């Protein structure tokens, strides 16, 4: 069966077209566009018209590729920004007109479970696992073995924390301290909710984590094959985070692994990862390129 999974988050919209057989996914195409759908949602409570339009343009391209590659089933999941927005119906109407399917504005719990399923695909590491999916508007914490035992979604993400706290270029020490207080309180609550301190392996998902991993590995270019399942130590995450927060957006854009649409928010994403590792007392994190997108694809079978 050939399936298409679309994950529409606060910062990016991604497409996976894959063939599914024997419980395995074989990638046909993976795409990612930074559309910043959740721009301003934390303060306004609404999706901006220009953000919806950016998302529409990306979906037009995805719809064309889905048609060209002969997909049997399509599922699109929208996450934090769409949950929070008072005008989410405008977004859903746009998606139906472009893609021909109803977008599912999934709960934080469902987002966490799909992320966990995708993250464990092909993983060989000691359970129990703590999976953290650091998105643009929210972060999911999931604990389990091969199945989910506890899950929670909390409202800290790289876009949300940047808009709320990190206004300078580079951010000031006071701004960073305010973000640290906000993130630490939320992370501590999340770890208690999922019993995250008793886990053996920390797995990190999404662009903030994989970008930090690429920087820690000192890659000459972004290479998913080298990033996937790389184990990154906490000291390296701490150094990368400090370097990013001490640099301007222009400096970050010069880094060969940096996606242009992530440069202004990567500081907050790295800070969230660093604080999770500190508060969960984890010496390392395994970066995964498989995440909610793979979980959505598996759910179609």
From TrEMBL:
InterPro entries attached to this UniProt entry: ATPase_NBD (IPR043129), GppA/Ppx_hydrolase (IPR050273), Ppx_GppA_N (IPR003695)
Top-level taxon: Bacteria
Domain Ppx/GppA phosphatase N-terminal: 16-299
Pfam families reported in the protein's UniProt record: Ppx-GppA
Signal peptide: none
Alphabetized GO MF terms: pyrophosphatase activity
PANTHER family: EXOPOLYPHOSPHATASE (PTHR30005), EXOPOLYPHOSPHATASE 2 (PTHR30005:SF13)
Protein name: Exopolyphosphatase
The species this protein was found in: Couchioplanes caeruleus subsp. caeruleus
